Automatic annotation (TrEMBL):
Cofactor(s) named in the record: Mg(2+)
Alphabetical UniProt keywords: Hydrolase, Magnesium
One GO MF term: hydrolase activity
Protein name per its UniProtKB record: ADP-ribose pyrophosphatase YjhB, NUDIX family
Pfam families associated with the record: NUDIX
Family: Belongs to the Nudix hydrolase family.
InterPro entries per UniProt: Nudix_hydrolase, NUDIX_hydrolase-like_dom_sf, NUDIX_hydrolase_CS, NUDIX_hydrolase_dom
Domain Nudix hydrolase: 122-252
Gene3D superfamilies tied to this protein: Nucleoside Triphosphate Pyrophosphohydrolase
Top-rank lineage group of the source organism: Bacteria
Origin organism lineage: Bacteria, Bacillati, Actinomycetota, Actinomycetes, Propionibacteriales
Amino acid sequence: MSVPDDAGSTRLTIRVDQNDGVGTLSWAVTTSAEALAQALSAVGDESILGNELRRLEVSLPVSDRVGRRALHRAGFRQEGVRRLALRTGPDGFEDVVLYARLASDVVHGPEGFSGVMTTVLPRTRVIAHVLFRDEEGAYLFCRTTFKEDWELPGGVVEPHESPRAGAVREVREELGIDVELGPVLAVDWLPPYLGWDDAVELIFDGGVLTPEQVASFVLEPHEIAAVHWVTPETAYPQLRPGAARRLQHLLAHPGGTAYLEDGSPA
């Protein structure tokens, strides 16, 4: 499809190669982001509405800011990054970004804008853990199958799941019990660790578990190697340094909700 650029003279040609309901876009002319966005929007509407395509996609170098901005404006959503996939010189490489528009996507108005932005803007994991005690005053920690340091019960919150619901679900999956949680004791920002990006962690008060609840534990064998009821002093050496600092702070400052960064007050 050919359309005039914003000056109305040079014609921008956008090619659509089709295969089994999927169209792949390409173009060669350098133009403004606004003109390219208008062209991509028109091509998208025509291809999807007129040619029964279910999907349009295009890959661009991460350095192509004009092209990427135009795709955002035209309602294309970022789906992923192929790391160092494009050679830029004898020893140079750069990332390639994959964008797509589906026939089912809303591409116009506030919902279309938000749908694009949620795929483009940074995302941070949310983790929900629970601090449990027993009737003797010991605290519960889990030794997982995939790392050395101990963790509180809980885990990563799923998309569209509240942190509280995520904590309840994770406790059920890891320990085999259903619990009602108390208030949030801390919100802690975690820096990158063991290959993970940064995250925001919420610590819920799980209260005191009864002997009957503890006896009913059914550990998830692929994730939980063992559980330990210990004093804080015994736990500190087994915890990630930030987690140890966080526990120390919570025990020294009971009541309320603490905001922490890597276990320390910000």
